[in-house]
Amino acid sequence: MIISMKVSQTKAVSISELKKVATEIRKNIIRMTAEAKSGHPGGSLSATEVVVALYFQVMRHDPKNPGWADRDRFIMSKGHASPVLYAALAHSGYFPAKDLINFRKLESPLQGHPDRRRLPGVEASTGSLGQGLSIGIGMALARRLQKKDYRTFVVMSDGEMNEGQTWEGAAFAAFQKLDHLTLIVDFNKYQLSDATAQILNMESLAEKWKSFNWDVQEIDGHDLEAVLKALERAKQVKGKPAVIIAHTVKGKGISFMENNNHFHGVAPTAEEAERALKELEGK
Amino acid sequence: MARERKMGMATRDAYGKALVKLGETNSQVLVLDADLSKSTKSAGFQSKFPDRFIECGIAEANMAGIAAGLALSGFVPFINSFATFLMSKTYDQLRMSVAFPEVNVKAVGSHGGISVGEDGASQQSIEDFALAASLPNFSVISPCDEYSTEALVPQIAQSSGPVFMRTGRPKTPLVYDPKKPPHFEIGKGILLQDGQDVTIIANGLLVFEALSAADLLAEEGIKAAVIDMHTIKPLDEELVIAQAKKTNAVVSCEEHQIYGGLGSIVAKVLSEHCPTPIEFVAIQDTFAESGQPDELLEKYGLTAPHIQAAVKRVLKRKKK
């Protein structure tokens, strides 16, 4: 199955334009995973609005100069959500959108999980859960030492809240008052095997982060206005790092994938992809 | 007569000193520790450059990840802990956040080997070479005395990829004469003395024991070549092969578990390029215990007489 990858590369400014970008990104998540016959569509679809808000509105970055010293940093700690990251990078202009078709293929820069050596624009290689926050902390410390003004954004999954390293980082970042660090938890309520509430319930997540002395916001992670507002507010917080707990729906945007954990790590079939794309066309 | 011991400082102390020197000339060097700076000897840097020292608390995994983020931002971070904790507790972080993306993090583990002494097996690192060497893109280094440590640290800072270096806790006999310093280079072994009968390849504390064993062997008319193989990976294959071809017998010596360290890597190179009888002086697949360093080295078979015996064994196997 060869799918055309036509997406626009204009920088969105209005909410309605951002919504259009989100739909385009969702289509590419479906196309990429269906073409690869593997990958993780569920957690990519849940993080779409957060990633779109960051790449197309909030972050300062230059696709023509991925090494720009003053750029904001983005780390996809939940590395299996590579499809949404790659789609956003392509849509931003880091590489031609037609290359998305090579996702997970031999020698492709679009590895199953992000590989910074292969793909300019990827800040950190991820895929072993729970490591992204610490890397982001290192970047935030570097910013302070270099007296620069960039921000570091880390997206983690609710499943990653199980990892001990996450809480080592939580304690450290607050103790160091890293106020140029924003963490977004894609709280889509599922991890690989089952609902997070069944596997290892981390609720109340907000209370945990508050007790670690972080600034905590809870939002609807699919409401672009709310996402933008929360990211903006996080910027204003002084003296502590900020976490945004984004309540999301796994598989968001496609009726038969929503809250269907089958699609955690299983790609849609060709027929399912066609149905999904048809649904997204209607949005 | 075994060689006279002129004691120098512990390699961890030499490292601490070298780190301060490095801090004076390289502003990109940062030092991270996990609540062990007084023991790892990163404390010297800490008091001299408090703004470039990052105390991470007893959270090694986070420390390794932070170092990756700092290195990705252009700094040269040195992370410190006991070797066993540094390699075991952060193995996944060193794999995923450092080795795989080829990030410029320098990991220095003190308290290598069983010469840690009285603290016992939990603190004695005997697996660190194997763990570090198994990570692609990592260089693995184990200096033998204070001079070699001080010579190698700036090179580690200059090198462009991930490095693991082991230092030791006790005072260490001097191998090198500071008035006649050899040329140190990561990845290049140093032929300390030549000899036609057997080649002894050692690192760390066992380099001095190897020289001492060579003296004992000389009394019996056996001429042993001794190599300080401070870099375990990338191994100086050229030197190993040349010496093996010349002497047709090899003994490896290390304060490390017998599987996966210097001996294993030397044996791999030999079996590939010039199969040669080899004997291994190492810890025989066991954990050690509390005791004085000298008592432990004696009990676990890591002294000059043990090396001498290994040479005798390998000579019996040597092809006539």
Automatic annotation (TrEMBL), chain A:
Similarity section: Belongs to the transketolase family.
Organism: Candidatus Abzuiibacterium crystallinum
Pfam families, per the entry: Transketolase_N (PF00456)
SUPFAM superfamilies in alphabetical order: Thiamin diphosphate-binding fold (THDP-binding)
Keywords noted in UniProt: Thiamine pyrophosphate
Domain Transketolase N-terminal: 20-276
The UniProt record lists the keyword Nucleotide-binding: no
Name this protein carries in UniProt: Transketolase
Entry-linked PANTHER family: TRANSKETOLASE N-TERMINAL SECTION-RELATED (PTHR47514)
Cofactor list: thiamine diphosphate
